[in-house]
Amino acid sequence: MLGTNDVQPVFKATASDIARGCGSLVEIVQRSASGPLDQVPEVLVIAPTPPRGTVWDHALGL
């Protein structure tokens, strides 16, 4: 999963930083002709749910 290591404290990346990086990767793929028959490939971005036991628990009502 791309981005999983980006959330490590050592990188000091915000959620916005990570989203921008993911968006940049999607744009690179969409400009390519690396899909079937040399066409632009489809892209599916899947983000994992936040881990339990974090500040997200309250925000998500967990």
Salient structural properties:
62 residues, single chain, SGNH_hydro_sf, mainly alpha, 2 helices
Overview of the molecule:
It is built from 2 helices and no strands. By secondary structure, the protein is mainly α. The chain has helices at residues 15-30, 56-59. The model has no long low-confidence stretch (mean pLDDT 80). The chain is elongated, with a radius of gyration of 15 Å. It has one domain (5-59). 32% of the residues lie in helices and 0% in strands. The two termini are 24 Å apart.
Question: How do the helices and strands line up, and which of them pair or pack?
Answer:
Blueprint: H1 15-30, H2 56-59
InterPro entries: SGNH_hydro_sf
Structure annotation, total helices: 2
Order of helices and strands: HH
Count of separate structural domains: 1
- Count the beta strands: 0
InterPro entries: SGNH_hydro_sf
What is this structure, in a nutshell?
InterPro entries: SGNH_hydro_sf (IPR036514). The chain is mainly α and 62 residues long.
